[in-house]
Amino acid sequence: MEQTLRALYHLQQIDLELDDLEAGSGDLPSEIKQLESELAEVQSTISEFESELSEIRRERNEENLQMQELRTRSIKLNERLGTVRNNREYDATTTEIAAAEERSKDLSKALSAFDDREAEILREVQTHEKKRDEITTNFDDKKETLYSIRESNSDEVEDFRSQREKALKELSEKLLERYGYVRAKHPDAVVKVRKGACSGCFRAVTPQTLVEMRRHEQVFYCEHCGRLLLDEELAESVEV
Length: 240
Hints:
Layout: H1 2-23, H2 28-81, H3 87-152, H4 154-169, H5 173-183, E1 190-194, E2 197-198, H6 207-213, E3 220-221, E4 228-231, H7 232-236
Parallel strand pairs: 1-4
Antiparallel strand pairs: 1-2, 3-4
Helix pairs in contact: 1-4, 2-3
């Protein structure tokens, strides 16, 4: 069990070292993640505008075809008007001509509206594309900076990760699960007991627990903060 306790504290020290190396990146990881989100949002908006633009152009083509058909029909109706044989044919033809002209006016308004909306969408797309380019530039710059930072620490990080893999093999799955659970709340999941108290939350540890802890026969947890406790003398003998 003493070796398990050593491995546990060793793992904790390695993870803290890796945390420090990651902290050297500052807020870059979260900033990059935020930029990724913004980039995806802007691109989604551009795609929506482009989809609407395609639909407008499709509908406008259909309206143009109808307009051409109406013009052809109006020409034929006006030609027929010169050959009518009675008032009934004349009235029917003029009614059709009037209907065609009215429909042409409606189509002209619709086509004008399509043109206005297309121009508006193109302006929006241009604005969002400019925003996308600015975000992309910022995103690339920050990624490059983060890469440089991590590259400079790569050897050290690799060494700690190698040590971590070895430490993991010495610990049970159940203990690692508990360690991970505590570490999600407290980065220093494994702490020394100093002057009879947990060095994480500074609450006193019972005398009986202190006596049992020095035997190095089991894992103890702080009753107040849940951190894993280690005898100070044993902890100080562990080096990374």
